[in-house]
Amino acid sequence: MRSSARAAIAAAGAAGVLLSGQAAVQAAPPTAGPGAPGIGDPYYPDYGNGGYDVSHYGLKLHYQPATDQLDGVATVEARATQGLTRFNLDFGLSVSKVTVDGRAAKFTAEGAHELVITPPRTLRKGKRFTTVVTYSGVPSSVKIYGFTSWQRTTTGGVAANEPESAWWWYPSNDHPRDKATFDVSVTVPDGHQAISNGVSTGVHSRNGWTTYGWRENRPQATYLATLAVGKFDIVKGRTPNGLPYEYAIGSDLPADTKANALTSLKRTPEILKWESSLFGRYPFDAVGGTVPNTKAGFAIETQTRPFYSPKFFAKGKPDFSVVVHENAHQWFGDNVSVHNWKDIWLNEGFATYAEWLWAEHAKESTTQAEADKVYNAHPAGDEWWNLLPGDPGAQDPFADQVYDRGALAVHAIRLRLGDQAFFKALRTWQAAKGGGDATVAQFVRHLERVSGKNIDDIVKTWLYTAGRPAVAPGH
């Protein structure tokens, strides 16, 4: 906070073998069974699902802001990675109908967020199949594990949270390992707007309702999909290199908040150009941001269109650092996503360090001064040093230490490698892993291959050892 899609694992079914002078012998078909109810994340074992890989989500939604009523039809295109007698989707709203490849399928809700589907026929390993789920509900009233990630606003609602937000507005294989492309169509009352990820595919009105279409053609993790419905002041245009941008700011926010938000978001193309010089070419086909009138206190890197709480812009001045942070995530978190949620340092450590780099670029500070500030703020013996950025735990993976101590780790690595090797490694990392996911260990190996230098001691000290290191990086 603040891909071609991961390749589907597929294999052809066993084929008949013709032996000379003998009849064809058919090998035994592969064993089929239920897909796992979790993808295998060590922090969140029931997040995501096993047995299939999604390639595309098509969402057709109808939303009434006055009542927070959401009705939807989700078309999920996937490939079976094993023989499937049943499979799960992560979801929390009420489901009325499910089909698999056009035929009615049995379904039931189990556990906190599992939609269990039994197709009319077993799905063989490697088969591409299409699941259509019809559903409805009032997202803000649905509590899972005691909370909802759907935020009511004064004029509508917003889906934005981490590590889970999809459960409240569309069924999915909800884990960053399974990225997919998206088409989102949202019908809302005239006078309201509906904003999602990627590029606009058109707007049309009929009988008092307006439908907005959005398409994200680059692989996107499920938690990075967003929907914001309400009344917004919208600024559109194109960046100097031709990418469409759209900034949406809640129409009923205070005038000074709106002005600060717009001033901040208008710097996005400039910030992205600068970040591209560090991390490589911007990986997506659209730019933007939303600032709904919500009470949330965070920002999040929803792909191509970050979500920002208005609190960032209600301090009497613009906030460029949060724009830097969330857009750095377009590389670290969105283009290359975490393999497991314990790898979250790969997202937050680098987005925070981007803020430090921006402060130096803007001649407001230096990366060394920012590192010293964090180090000196927490003396020896402070419990703050006992949370490990490389393995922060499921209870609080977004603790301050992941961001700030995580950025200290990045600074220490940069100093060891030197700027030429460090930034080359960041750019080649994006080129090598873009559109997919990765672990901390894979990233460390990549840095060492590119630089020819060993950083095991730095990684152990700053990411995996409790207690305050003897000296700050750079001293």
TrEMBL record:
Catalytic activity entry = Release of an N-terminal amino acid, Xaa-|-Yaa- from a peptide, amide or arylamide. Xaa is preferably Ala, but may be most amino acids including Pro (slow action). When a terminal hydrophobic residue is followed by a prolyl residue, the two may be released as an intact Xaa-Pro dipeptide
Which E.C. number(s) belong to this protein? 3.4.11.2
Extract one GO BP annotation from the record.
proteolysis
Which Pfam families does the record match to this protein?
A: Peptidase_M1, Peptidase_M1_N
User: Which stretches make up the Aminopeptidase N-like N-terminal domain?
Assistant: 55-224
Q: Which CDD domains match?
A: M1_APN_like
EC supergroup of this enzyme: hydrolase
- Residue limits of the Peptidase M1 membrane alanine aminopeptidase domain? 320-462
Kindly list the GO molecular function terms attached to this UniProt entry. alanyl aminopeptidase activity; metallopeptidase activity; zinc ion binding
Q: Which cofactor does it need?
A: Zn(2+)
Query: What InterPro entries does the record point to?
Result: Aminopeptidase_N-like_N (IPR045357), Aminopeptidase_N-like_N_sf (IPR042097), Peptidase_M1 (IPR001930), Peptidase_M1_aminopeptidases (IPR050344), Peptidase_M1_dom (IPR014782), Peptidase_M4/M1_CTD_sf (IPR027268)
Q: Any idea which UniProt keywords this protein has? A: Hydrolase, Metal-binding, Metalloprotease, Protease, Signal, Zinc
**Is Protease tagged as a keyword?**
yes
Signal peptide feature range: 1-23
Q: Which family does it belong to?
A: Belongs to the peptidase M1 family.
Q: What is this protein called?
A: Aminopeptidase N
Species whose genome carries this gene: Actinomadura harenae
